[in-house]
Amino acid sequence: MSIRDKLLEIAGKTNFFDDPKTIATYATDYSLVPAGTANFVVKLKTAEQLQKVVELANKELVPVVPVSSKVHFTGSSIPKQGGIIADLTGMNKILEIDELNRRVRLEAGVTWNQIYTQLEKKGLRIMMPLLPHPDRSVLTDHLEREVITNTVYDYGEPMQSLEVVWPNGDLFRMGSASVPGYPNTPSKGANPSGPGMDFYRLVQGAQGTMGAVTWTNLKVQRKPTMDKVLACAVNDLNRVTDYLYRVLRMRIGQEVVILDANNLAAIVAEDMDNEYDKLRFSLPPYSLFMILSATANRPEEKIKYELDVLADVTGNEFPDIILTENLPGFPGLSQKMLSLLRKPWPVGETYWKNRVKGGCQSLFFITKPNLVPEFIDIAKSVAVGFDYPVADMGIYIQPIEHNRAAHLEFNFFYDPESVYEREQVAALYTDAAKVLLNEGAIFSRPYGTVAPMVYEKATGYTETLKRVKKIFDPNKIMNPGNLCF
User: Fold this and answer.
1) Nearest-angstrom CA–CA distance, 177 and 168
2) What is the fold, at CATH topology level, of the domain defined by 352-445?
3) What would the pLDDT profile of 192-206 be if each residue is shown by its tens digit?
4) CATH class label, 226-341
5) CB within 10 Å: which end of the chain, N or C, has fewer?
């Protein structure tokens, strides 16, 4: 039998595709990574089917690229050497919602909109990145360590245990899900370490490079019963950084984000054609949003305590930091941000990063909060050299680990129909990454043209990673061309 016939047998006639039209839908994504063409696409429903596909790929020495989502922004799922697309979006069951242990077990294809809707019914919520795409895989974003907006829970590992198909086709469970009798065991898979080694960290990175994860257990939290949104117009990033150093270490606030005027306008404008420019030119240069929250246990007292702490710190040390219930001059904006930050981006609406010009290339890294202004100046300087209008660039600053560090993201908006703008932003992205890397930016999730730069800098780590990958994937069939990201 040919590979085609064997894949037909595994997936079934209705879930096998080799026509150019279908294959083309997997050749590109929202990034500027060059297109890549697979030979076959199989839509899978079970881990057993995935095992058979991987075993076949090993036997025939054909690449396999697992795809868990309909939406990708980094090029990590674009096939670089042809082969088989293993589409896992049909594996979209929420297997368990464990209210007592605040845990949810979900398959690879479960989307942000899907998990949000189901947890909402139970009075639970999952920690989210900034406005995730509603059709993006929750599991993929956790594997890729997307930064969440909540500064209270970011120390804890949200991924507790998982199931993976190794590159040889073996099925393996990690953490406390690996013990006999799971899921009917006392821990219910709620411990990521489990017996033995912490294998779950090995597969963190782009889905399908070290193995294909089929399901995972994730932490969830009770929904707050009371919230209070505070906003601050920011003109001096150094000053607000010092303020956040002071208050976030005391675990004050839940979601805490800083957005520049361009990004904030792209998020909140209801009519982009008529409102976007007006908003971005009237909003403060940066806006800080801090959400105080409490659950059912004496919520009024908790909110009052946090407000008293903020008032004390502000009054005695930072009288120039003015936190108010509404961003001055923009009534209702704070409550709108509360609603937005607790949900995925609305279904059916153009994603916020693509609302400005149709395309967006995001460059992000980790740094010390007090270095953020310096890195912004560097990025703007590089942009000027490529004739990219710095006034159109979006900036997102996310405090992490109680402001011990910060996720800094630059959003370069462009028209995807313009060859000039695509090439301009692609070159800008690569050069800016090179300059920022040399200045000390930590690209903990390097994608596209950034990955080889980072791996070249970290040669010892890279060689170790290659040796590990060779052990698990000796035939180099799992998402070849990607070492990790």
Assistant:
1) 21
2) Vanillyl-alcohol Oxidase; Chain A, domain 3 (3.40.462)
3) 777 766 777 788 887
4) alpha beta
5) N
